[in-house]
Amino acid sequence: xxxxxxxxxxxxxxxxxxxxxxxxxxxxxxxxxxxxxxxxxxxxxxxxxxxxxxxxxxxxxxxxxxxxxxxxxxxxxxxxxxxxxxxxxxxxxxxxxxxxxxxxxxxxxxxxxxxxxxxxxxxxxxxxxxxxxxxxxxxxx
Length: 141
What we know:
CATH class of the domain at 18-106: Alpha Beta
Number of strands: 9
Number of helices: 2
Radius of gyration: 16 Å
Helix content: under 10%
CATH architecture of the domain at 18-106: 2-Layer Sandwich
Order of helices and strands: EHEEEEEEEHE
């Protein structure tokens, strides 16, 4: 008799993600968002931003600048997600003593990826892989 294969996790509504590929898949659902950044439990920065780029790269920083968020999952150990009282998903990325909380704005959450299925390639996502969140190609100058 063949051994039973182990099942992959199934997280519905809330959960914890440690795999960079899973973290990116969850973060792809965000567009316009509110963020809060804490270091050792102390608020450092709050703001609104558009998620411009997702990446998994040991050499790049996560940057929130000029209303844009360039998010590197390699900046964090894991991601927790759950649903808040407004039925919006809240994601918290945890680093060493840091927490970046992301909450989709209500208007963005109602239109993001509705009816759109995105499949990642079978190739495993490795650190050093960049993932662009917009569908359009960047213009070259």
